[in-house]
Specification:
The complex is a heterodimer of chains A (293) and B (262). With 293 residues, chain A is mostly helical. Chain A has twelve helices and two strands, in the order H-H-H-H-E-E-H-H-H-H-H-H-H-H. Chain A has a two-stranded antiparallel ribbon. Chain A is globular, with a radius of gyration of 19 Å. Chain B is an alpha/beta fold and 262 residues long. In chain B, 42% of the residues lie in helices and 23% in strands. Chain B has helices spanning 46-54, 76-82, 99-106, 108-111, 115-120, 122-142, 158-170, 188-203, 215-221, 239-244, 246-259, and strands at residues 8-17, 20-30, 35-39, 61-66, 69-70, 84-86, 176-180, 207-211, 224-229, 232-237. The radius of gyration of chain B is 19 Å and the shape is globular. The N and C termini of chain B lie far apart (45 Å). Classes of the chains: A mainly alpha (293), B alpha/beta (262). Chains A and B meet through helix 6, helix 7, helix 8 and helix 12 of A and helix 2, helix 3, helix 4 and helix 6 of B.
């Protein structure tokens, strides 16, 4: 029972990280119909700029983390303005635009390499890494903070998308930007918001998960892939499907690693996703949005 | 006493695609409270003209003046706030969204501000959202669809989707409603219902400009008719005048019998 609890907790922690990346990918996709392949890089940027502000500049966490979020928001804004928008205005295909975001990912990794170098850096932790034992299950406040942040952001995004007119306009832009524009919605502004918002979520994720994963310039692409898998597994329908996919991948990974070898985790998960896509091409919860009352 | 300026004036409007002229120097006016129809054989340039007026495609030449505004200078997202709104030949609802959400989006321009100001004034925004929902319900009631408010729009039959589109257009409080083939694909009962609803709206002072294939529909509802053929206006007048105009009979009615266009 105890081992099961630890398994679930570790699965939830990793799952929350994948879910946060998946959530932000789906959020951008929801408004722009493009998968932003630079999304994982914002986690990298979040982790490494935490090193910059908190370790290098010795700023306290409460000042450092907001600075990290400002940096990520700015870069997210630039990605939309310098890559997404010019390509859309030239009438590019979604595939071309996705390659554009991949280029942004490369530029971000390259720039980070110039600033932080190739070594793995220790990312200062906002919450304690000391074990706390509750009901026989040992966890760390940092771990719990990741899960809590995920739960909070998920609730916030749900409220924003489904309980406000602003959220309604985001969903409308994703479905038909031309008609949304005729309804008086500034489609480009909404899409820019989705990029900036996702970048902030990425930065926050980086600041939280950095102490556990270690900060490294090439950590982004792995997270983009895991987040993308979360989106595929859960379904493109909504950020919550993607989040569910992320949690599922985290739990699956933890289970495979515990009963077998963590080396097999990724091949097994990829295999399962492939099988799932053959059975349900729209993802586990793909039709969820359409059937939502 | 001078006559008031027209609500909409279309002056020498043209659209060329490469060397091909789709709309060539078309001019007409819509006055307050009028229902004006645009007819013409297939390929006469009706839909193109409509996209030009509603701002979906840029003009090659001419002017569209609406309520004193030069519409070529008004970006598409500001048109509905000025009082001009349209429906589409092929219904363009947000299929995944519920019926009431679709209608609420139409009234978006009346309430929503930017994201930052929304956050700063959250309580007011939430009240506005509730008002918008209320107003959307009012218009759904008007078109007789309040019972289906929470269903995904794509689940409704075509005729009802058309009504949702009209409710979505009306919630923005337009002065001029542009209807692109509103009766297309409707059965007899649905067409009669549509006619009744449009007449009621017109009685309340709404001006309507519509493009339509269905001759009976257009003759029955329009105050004035503009006839297009090969991108140029060949006649304007009351339904009675249009019916007797020899140029129209040749261009439209004559051909129509020949090639059996629907």
């Amino acid at each position: 029972m105890q081992t099961f609890g630890i398994l679930i907790l570790s699965g939830l922690t990793n799952g929350s990280v994948y879910a946060l990346v998946g959530l932000s990918l789906a959020m951008t996709y929801g408004a722009s119909r493009v998968i932003n392949f630079a999304q994982g890089e914002f986690v990298m940027l979040g982790a490494l700029s935490t090193v910059l502000f908190v370790t290098t500049f010795s700023l306290p966490m409460v000042v450092g983390i907001p600075m990290v979020l400002i940096v990520c928001a700015t870069v997210g804004f630039l990605v939309e303005r310098l890559a997404y928008r010019p390509l859309v205005r030239r009438g590019s295909q979604p595939l071309t635009i996705m390659i554009g975001t991949l280029a942004c990912a490369s530029i971000m990794t390259g720039t980070a390499l110039l600033i932080w170098g190739p070594n793995q850096l220790f990312v200062p932790n906002a919450f304690s890494l000391e074990g706390v034992t509750i009901a026989g299950i040992t966890s760390t406040p940092q771990q719990l903070a990741i899960i809590a942040t995920f739960a909070f952001l998920m609730a916030l995004i749900w409220f924003m998308l489904y309980r406000t007119t602003f959220g309604l306009t985001i969903r409308a832009v994703g479905i038909d930007p031309a008609v949304a524009t005729l309804m008086g919605i500034r489609a480009e502004t909404i899409i820019a918001f989705s990029f900036v918002f996702s970048a902030i979520v990425g930065g926050l994720t980086g600041g939280l998960v950095g102490p556990l994963l270690g900060g490294h310039v090439s950590m982004g692409i792995m997270l983009t892939i895991k987040g993308f898998m979360a989106v595929i597994l859960g379904g493109m329908g909504s950020p919550f499907a993607a989040a569910a996919g992320g949690i599922a991948i985290g739990l699956l990974e933890a289970t495979v690693a515990f009963y077998g070898n963590s080396f097999y985790a990724e091949p097994i998960i990829f295999g399962l996703i492939l099988m799932m896509l053959i059975i349900r091409p729209t993802g586990l919860l793909g039709e969820w949005e359409a059937n939502r009352k | 006493m001078t006559t008031p300026p027209p609500l909409l004036s279309i002056r020498e409007v043209s659209k060329r695609f490469g060397g091909l002229s789709a709309v060539d120097a078309v001019s007409f006016e819509v006055h307050s409270g009028e229902i004006v129809g645009v007819i013409g054989p297939n390929g006469a340039g009706k839909s193109t003209l409509f996209n030009l007026v509603s701002g979906l495609a840029p003009l090659t030449g001419g002017d569209v003046i609406f309520g004193g505004n030069d519409m070529t200078l008004v970006p598409p997202h500001e048109r509905s706030a000025i009082g001009m709104t349209r429906t589409f030949q092929i219904v363009r609802l947000f299929g995944h969204l519920s019926v009431i959400e679709n209608v609420m989006l139409g009234g978006h321009c009346r309430t929503t501000q930017g994201f930052a100001s929304s956050l700063l004034r959250l309580p007011k925004v939430l009240i506005d959202d509730r008002k918008l929902r209320h107003l959307a319900m009012h218009w759904l009631n008007f078109v007789g669809l309040s019972k289906r408010a929470d269903e995904p729009a794509s689940h409704l039959p075509h005729g009802q989707q058309r009504m949702v589109e009209i409710a979505r257009a009306m919630i923005s409080g337009p002065k001029l409603l542009l209807l692109d083939e509103p009766a297309a694909g409707l059965n007899g009962a649905e067409t009669t219902n549509l006619l009744n609803i449009l007449r009621q709206l017109n009685d309340r002072g709404l001006s309507i400009l519509l493009v339509e294939h269905d001759m009976k529909f257009i003759m029955g509802i329009c105050d004035r008719i503009v006839v297009l053929d090969h991108g140029t206006g060949i006649a304007q007048g009351t339904p009675q005048e249009i019916r007797q105009n020899p140029a129209v009979i040749e261009a439209y009615l004559g051909k129509r019998n020949g090639d059996a266009a629907h």
